[in-house]
Structures are given as structure tokens and as C-alpha cells.
Amino acid sequence: MRTRDIFSYSFSAIKLRKLRAGLTTLGVIIGIAAIVALLSISQGLQTTITNQLEQGLAADTLIVSVSTGGAFGGASGGTGGGGFGGGSSGASSGFKLYLNYTEEIKGLSPDIEAAFATVQQSGYLQDGDRVRAISGGISGVDFAEYANIYSTTFVAANGTIPLNPSNNDIVVGARVHDPRSNGTIFVNVNDEVTVIWTNATQLPFTNQTYTAHVAAVLPKIGSFGIGGPSDTGVYVPISQAQSFFGTDEASAIIVKLTNSDNATITNVSKLITDHFSNQVNVISATAVLSLLTTIFSTLTLFLGGIAAISLLVAGIGIMNIMIVSLIERTREIGILKAVGMKSRTVLSIFLCESVIIGLIGAVIGIVLGWGLANIVAVLFSGGGPFGGGGGLAITPILTPEVGLLALGFGVGVSVIFALYPAWRASKLKPVDALRYV
Amino acid sequence: MTLTTPVVEITNLKKTYMLGKVPVEALREVNLKVERGEFLSILGPSGSGKSTLLNLIGALDKPTSGKLLIDGVDVSKLNDNQLTEIRLKIGFVFQFFNLIPRLSAKDNVELAMSIAGMSKVERTKNTEQLLETVGLKDRMNHKPAELSGGQQQRVAIARALANKPRFLLMDEPTGNIDSKTAHEVIELIKKLNAEGVTIIMVTHDQNLAKEAKRTIQVFDGVIESDMVN
């Protein structure tokens, strides 16, 4: 019998039992949709976070901070404080990172191109009668060096970043400019604002203020800018920070390397930690990224496994239905065999039915899963009801590999679970099958 | 397979079933030869072994011992797959029609051809011709449930003829239809035989058996009589 004829015969058998076939297919649809949705969301999330990290933390950059488990990035703040750093040892060692250590660090290795310090404090910004806490912190940085390292993120979306800033110039992140991302502007370029810092190092606490001029607004970066500029940060010239905060301690020292080879990164990291007798944390983009990649592949595997279980259940459903169908069609099989159909063809017809169910289920499942992933992404992204205003935009990603994998998996599971019923059908003896009423 | 090869040749045929642990001799010593163009009826009451004989001649089952040649091929030596191929040379007509309910008359006939691997174009042409032969061309798009018993049996006959079989093997072809339509079916069978189709018909109905040119009577697993009507 020709393949096309086998297909059309199988299809006519499926069409006859639409409800039953539909329910069987639904099992496959749900399984495949779950797999596709989970995989594309987790892949999208991974890409989003990785991209933002790569932007916020240049690959050839190391961030040196006191090993206390606190904020480890010069201008980070937006990352939820030490979530990735893991350095909590030596919290009370009394070790301090001073601004002039940059020179020492520079001298450690020829692979170091530049090193500069950042000073960060939390504070407020006042524009007219409106005051906002700056959650990304007020950071003192060398505008020229900072712009050099974070050349894609520390750029002006509005205004200009002065390379030789006067003391009252400041640069603000996108969400300081427009806190709700909806056009309600808090500060704008060329505004005169008041920078407020509560000095808590002495009693009584005093509010220190100075009037600053907003020189530039940064573009929207995202919330994962470890080390690099943050959407919620305010940047002031390092010298101004030093005198305003009255300190010569650095929150972090950013080290720019001449290259981003893994060997260089490991090597220089070790040199720096050794130089400061293990009292500092050195974080590199590579280390954070590889950790994240590990976390995500484990997560993907785990979620995929859960989805695979639902597909397994679907497979058992297919087997069940096929056995029922086989019993119902015993007589039909008898007729087919009496008329001259070979066992192999009977087997093909039953397998073909499962291929059709698997194929339809997989295709619908992929489309549905993709739709589901997009809905979830919208709901949980910055603007959505569950977004929490994090500004983290997930774009689900469906690679051709995942699509093909889902298709193959759907069809594969259907066929595997149809093997036994199909084999039983093919083994029916025509004499017995014809006698069956 | 020359023109003179008998379509069926049976020598010392035996078939024993195991009914639980008791062996039952359904056929003991059967000898029979059916030549091309014959119209033979096999007559016998229930339990006589005629159904067993039908299954064997139809290559649905294998004999316990003896020789059974269908179109010159010894069936007892074939495996299941080869038996199936032999069945393409046999046109089955069953008492309960055994059409596929979800397929139209046309598709039922076509199915037999597609099983034999015939191309779509050829199938369509042959099907229309066959349904015209059995007088059902105007009803070819009807499903079995929309046809009367007699019409269903005529579709079944058209299907049996689909692959130009060596002979038609009929099991009580009128057993499930009313006497008036039964008459039409018998006339069709006679017409086909007159056109050269070999027919072997199994029945317990003496009146039907008389319509054939030759009748053999089976009783208790042996052929009791073999006569020309």
C-alpha cells in the first residue's frame, strides 16, 4: 500500500472519532506547550539578564571591593546588594579601600590598563518641592574613565556628559529622570537640583546639601548593571563626591584590563586579592556570567523535566486510546487482512494515526506554548501587573532547535506509546478478527 | 500458472482444532479440485466443517496436514505474510458484508485496490466500472449505513472483484438479506460467472446451493457428495 494511501486511511479513522482524537491530542498539546513555554521563557530570561550584565559590566573589567558582602559595584545598588558576590567573610576586619590604592593596583600587572575608584552613598535629590530617594545611590566617578569603560551605557541620551566636569555637574539614570517610565519627569537636563546626603557618621545626623546642575540623562539600561551605570543612580564627579561625603575611602575600585582573556582575568584577580591579603572581593563579568549560565541550565533542565512528565502522561493516554480503538476495530482489521493487507501495513496505519496525532499536537502545542510565553512575559515584565516595576523586559526566545526538539518529542512520544497497540493490531489473526462482533 | 491450472486443488486435507485440551477434527480427508470458470457451492449444516474449509480455501488459515494449492501455490508452506499476498488473488464476499462503515461505497472498493498498491488514477477508473457492473454507480458516494442489505452486498462483490481475483469466495452471500434482494444478488453472481468469473460459494441453504453449477455436500468433516446440478 502506498504511503499516501496509508496516511489518508489513518486520517479517515481519526476523523471518525473527533472528540476522542481531540482529547488525545490535547494531552500532547499541553505537554508540548508547557515545554515550549518554559524553555522559551527561561531562554529569554537568560538572554535578557546576560545582555544586561554584559552591558553593565564590561568583560574586560574587574571590580574590587572590600570583602564585606555589601555593595560590590561602584555604581551598582540596583542588584539587590551582594546577591551574586557571595563575599561575606572578613566583614569586620576593619580593612578599608582607599582612593589612592588605584595606583598600587595599576602597578600590579602590565595587563591592567587603568584603575579608578568610585565613592558611593545613598541620598536624595530635590527638584523644586519634590524629593526622591536615589535607590541606585549617589556615586562619585571619574566621568571620562567611566565613559571609557562603559562606553555603551555611560553615554548621554539627553544633554552631554562633560569629560572635564565642574563640581556641580551631575549625570542621572533613566529612571531618575522618569521614575515610572511613563513620561512623568522628575528631573530633566539643565535642571538645577539639590543633592541631599544624610551624614550619619557623627551625631547628631546632619543633612548636607549642595546645588547641582543636571548635565546629562543616561539611556535606559535595565536593572542588572553590576559595576556599570544604573538606571536609578546619580553620578557626580569623583572629587566632588570626595569632598561632599568627606571621605577618602573608595566603595569600589574598577580595574580595566588590556584584554578579556579568561587567563588574564583569573591571573589579575588573584594578584589583586593576594595583594590585599584576601580582604577584597574581585568580581569579573565572566565569573558572574558563568555562574548565571550554570544556574540557568540547571533551571531549564528542571523545568523541562517537569514538562516532560506531562508529555509522558499524554503518551500513556495515547496508548490507552489506541488499545481501546484497536479492540473496537478488531473486525475492521480482520476485513483489511482478509482483503490482503499485510501485517506491516496494519502496523503502519496505527503508527501513522499516532504520528498524525503527535504532529498536530506538537504544532498546536508549539504555537500555544509560544503564545503562553509571550503572555507570561508581558505580565511579568516591567509594565505588567506582576512586573513589580523592575523594568526587566523578558523577550521569550524560541530557537529553531527548541521548535524542532518539541516537534520531535511530540511525535516521538506518540509513536513510542503507539508501538505496542499497533503491534498487537498487526498480530491479529484474520480468522479470529472476522469472528469478532 | 497456465490457464489450465485449477484455481483450487485440495488433496488429503486435514484440519484439527484444539478445543481446550480436546482435539477436534473439523476436516478429515478432503479432496477437491475447482477448475477455472466453475460455479461451485459447498453445502453443509452448521458444524459440518464447511466454515473451516472456507477459511482454508480463503488462505485465512493453514491446514494441519495435506496439500492445498491456490492458483498452483501450496498454502501449507507459506508464512503469514505470503498468505496475505495470496489473499489478494481471492475475492471475499461475507455474510455480513464487512464493509468499512466510515468509507463510502466507492472508497470501500478503492481501498481493496490501494491495498494492492494500485495508482489513484487507475483506482478511480476501475472503481466506477465495477460499481457500474454491480449496478450501483449512482450510489457510489453513499456510506454502507445508507444502503440496503442487497446494495451493501453488491458493493462487497464489487470490492471482491477489485483486484481481478482468481475466484470469488462467498460465505452465505444472501444469508443476511431479504429474499427479493437476495434474488438480485444471485442474478448478479450468475451473470459474473457467465462472464468467466470462478465462484466458490459456501452455504447451508439448499435452494441457494442449487443455483450453482456444481454442489458438494460436506458432513462431519468429509465430502459426502459431489454432483453437477
Protein model, in words:
The complex is a heterodimer of chains A (about 425) and B (about 230). Chain A has two domains: about 5-55 and about 290-435, no CATH class; about 60-260, no CATH class. Helix content of chain A is about 50%, strand content about 15%. Chain A has helices at about 5-15, 20-55, 100-105, 145-150, 175, 240-245, 260-275, 285-330, 330-340, 345-380, 400-425, 430-435, and strands at about 60-65, 110-125, 130-140, 160, 170, 190-200, 205-215, 235, 250-255, 280-285. In chain A, strands 2-3-8-5-7-6 form a six-stranded mixed β-barrel. In chain A, a hairpin with a 6-residue loop joins β6 and β7 (about 205-215). Chain A is elongated and about 100 Å long. Chain A starts with a helix and ends with a helix. The model of chain A is unreliable at about 70-90 (pLDDT under 50). Chain B has a single domain (about 10-230), classed as Rossmann fold, CATH 3.40.50. Chain B contains seven helices and ten strands. Chain B has helices at about 50-55, 80-85, 105-115, 120-135, 150-160, 180-195, 205-210, and strands at about 10-20, 20-35, 40-45, 65-70, 75, 90-95, 165-170, 200-205, 215-220, 220-229. The longest helix of chain B is centred in the C-terminal third of the chain and has 16 residues, at about 180-195. The interface between A and B is medium-sized, with 25 and 25 residues.
